[in-house]
Amino acid sequence: MTADLAIPATTPFGGMSRSRVQALYLLLGFSAGLPFYMFNAVLTLRLAQHGIDIAIVGFFAWIALLPTFKFLWAPLLERFDVPGFTGFWGRRRGWLMLAQLGIVSSMVGMAATADDASLPLTALFAVTLAFWTTTLEIAADGWRIELAPTQTEQGPVVAANLWGYRSAMVAAGSGAAFIAARADWAAAYLGIALLAFLPFPILAAMRAEEGARARRVTALGGGLAAGAMFLLAVTALTAVAGWAALSLAAWAGIDSRTNVTPWALAICMLPFIAMALALPRIRRMGPDAPWRRSATVGPYVDIFWRFGFGTLAVLAFVSLYRVGDVLALTLSHPLWDARGYSLDQIGIADGFVALPSSMLGVALGGWMAAKWPLGRTLAIGAVLAAAGNLIYAWLWWAAPEGWRLYCSVALDQFGNGFAGTVFVVYLSMLVNPRFPAAQYAFLSGFAFLLARLLAGASGTMQKEIGYDGFFILSGAVSLVAIVLIPVIVRVRARQPDVPA
After folding, report:
1. pLDDT digits (tens, 9 = 90+) for 79-89
2. Where in the cell is it found (predicted)?
3. For the chain, first and last CA: distance in Å?
4. What's residue 149's pLDDT?
5. Most exposed among 287, 316, 341, 343, judged by the fewest C-beta atoms under 10 Å?
6. Is-contact 377 369, C-beta < 8 A?
7. How confident is the model over 223-244, as pLDDT tens digits?
8. Is 3-251+260-488 assigned to CATH 3.90.79.20?
């Protein structure tokens, strides 16, 4: 990464102190990490314990594809207000508060379907949970890039955000496992839902946005009323889309016996082909070209206009970098369950072991991202991510003893925390400050397209090559990204031809 890709500095941290912004993003990371783990790793463990076929468990990982396409609705968060909330707290916080209401309502729905007797209903609430979690992240990422526009400022803010995020994932994973071991999965989801709601009153108690047009109580009442309508609409649309998707899968003959891996790889190639065909035309566009001025597609066309054919190398790199981490998250918990580890042992691994390991990785990654060249720290992160995958192959071969599980999780979470922090800083430096939320949504979403497509096929891959072969393969993919680092660090941004 070079200085050409750094976002021009404005007022550091929006006039707030660094410590206040870090505390704010610790809170926002916490509110995003809780639900992510509940529709991802915790759900795969829950399904595995209910005896659901491992291929079907893998298909549920496709729910995590929803954040990949967050660029489709990210521009709406840039342009539109949330009725009620925005009048007092401003647009960014308004969307954050609405998203939190959606997160809690979806988790209550997942608690109501915790016996997994109807997998379509389980999927419905998992998808709405993924949608609202992603919406919260879009709003938070856009605000973060506005508040901390340079690489030096991004490092500590990203670290604080990921501390909160990973603390919440640990709280969700270990907390849900401990509660389920003593009660049931419904109680686990309700308990985490209650915890997920804690940031809402903190946001509601914050001071008004400068120039606020409404009073606090009026804005809160209007926001809650509008929020209820939004939640019903999103749930209804999700149900219709889910019915259509299941009908299409049945028509295509896709079931637990289908090898979907080749299809996943083919689908992932389509965006690269389309972008390669469109790039020459995009590079010739002037500042008045309709595509560049469009509020809908303009932010995304700008990425390709600025970086040209270097965009293909950048997107190839980001699509590979986190594959190993995503695949490990998908099948690590089913592996632990299949190997005979108890819910209490899994809870300890997800909590007392994962939290300090992850925090150490995040802290070191944040420090190095602020002080070292990003190319070097990205390479270190890839090696650590690969090691975290490979150790799960050893865990499968070894006798099921607690210390082995804890050592494996410690290495995996340290590497995941380090690589994740450096990666977020790298993506943030690619963003044009004119379109922070939309462009970061596109880049971070595209970064997980290949990973999450393959995650949905992880169950069928496991059936073919076993757990050990699966984690050896995912570790090897993490190392492949290193080959592209000498290329992406030389990518230069084109000078803007329109006023910032």
Report:
1. 888 898 888 88
2. Membrane
3. 22
4. 67
5. 287
6. yes
7. 899 989 999 999 999 999 888 8
8. no
pLDDT, residue 482, reads 93
Which residues touch 60 (CB under 8 Å, ≥6 apart)? 43, 44, 47, 123, 126
Here the tokens at position 328 are 């490990």
| pLDDT number for residue 8 | 39
User: Is the separation of the CB atoms in 213 and 85 below 8 Å?
Assistant: no
- Dihedral over Cα of 288, 294, 295, 297: its sign: negative
The CA–CA distances, whole Å, from 388 to 29, 173, 317, 419 equal 23, 18, 19, 11
pLDDT at residue 263, rounded to an integer: 64
pLDDT computed for residue 461 by the predictor: 87
Structure tokens, 193 = 């839902």
The label of the residue with tokens 């001071």 reads: 207
| Residue bearing tokens 């925005």 | 86
How many Å apart are CA 29 and CA 483, to the nearest integer?
Answer: 31
Q: Which residues of the chain have pLDDT under 70?
A: 1-17, 149, 151, 254-266, 268-269, 271-272, 498-500
Closest CA to 325 of 41, 32, 26: 41
Non-local (6+) Cβ contacts of 85 within 8 A are 93, 94, 95, 97, 98, 219, 220, 222, 223, 226, 227
C-alpha separations of 65 from 127, 389, 409 in Å: 10, 21, 24
Q: How far is CA 487 from CA 300, 330, 362, 399, 491, in A?
A: 22, 30, 25, 43, 7
- Pull the structure tokens for residue 131: 């949608």
- pTM of this prediction? 0.69
- Would you say 214 and 95 are in contact if contact means Cβ atoms under 8 Å apart? no
Closest CA to 271 of 319, 343, 207: 319
What CA–CA distance (Å, rounded) separates 493 from 474? Answer: 32
